[in-house]
Design brief:
The protein is mostly helical and 176 residues long. Helices cover 67% and strands 0% of the residues. The chain folds into 2 domains: 63 residues; 68 residues, no CATH class.
Length: 176
């Protein structure tokens, strides 16, 4: 006769497992979004689907790779220790996302929403130039000369690559 065994209580989640769950969920969401974008882009003609197909394919591949790394526990989990004394942690994405306050999130979301609204109104190239200069000046506190040169270079590169080189029609805005 065998002795009855008492059921073992479930083990509490480990700190590493608790940190891995949001990464897992976010990776799955990204994989689904990129896969959906890839399926949608395949319905378009070759020229119209070229850039979306390339971006979505890379996104699917990298998301799938990251999903495997998360599931096998081979990702770098953010440390629970205080920030490094040399300020290196200030640029670590995990540190930035976990320490950003509500005001920072609102500001970032307003920048993104403003960018897309401006693309609709005045077009992609103009919006990119203006928002690049404005963001560098107002958020990063870069000098005016750097802001102007950088924004002009980004706008010129955007126009040369998409309009001239690839001949892809980009949003020109409602006033164009």
């Amino acid at each position: 006769m065998t002795s009855p065994t008492s059921p073992t209580p479930p083990t509490p989640p480990t700190p590493e497992g608790a940190r891995r769950t949001p990464d897992l969920v976010f990776t799955i969401v990204l994989l689904v979004v990129f896969a959906g974008a890839l399926l949608l882009a395949r319905q378009w003609g070759f020229r119209a689907s070229l850039v979306p197909t390339l971006v979505a394919s890379v996104g699917v591949g990298l998301s799938a790779l990251h999903l495997v790394l998360v599931l096998t526990g081979r990702t770098h989990a953010p440390a629970l220790t205080p920030a490094a004394a040399d300020g290196e942690a200030d640029h670590d994405p995990a540190h930035v996302f976990t320490t950003a306050g509500a005001a920072n999130w609102r500001s970032s979301l307003l920048w993104v929403a403003g960018f897309f609204a401006a693309v609709y109104v005045v077009g992609l190239v103009v919006t990119t130039v203006v928002f690049t200069a404005a963001y560098l000046r107002l958020s990063v506190r870069a000098g005016w000369r750097f802001c102007a040169l950088y924004a002009a270079a980004v706008g010129l590169l955007l126009w040369l690559v998409f309009v001239e080189l690839l001949a892809i029609q980009i949003p020109e805005g409602v006033f164009a």
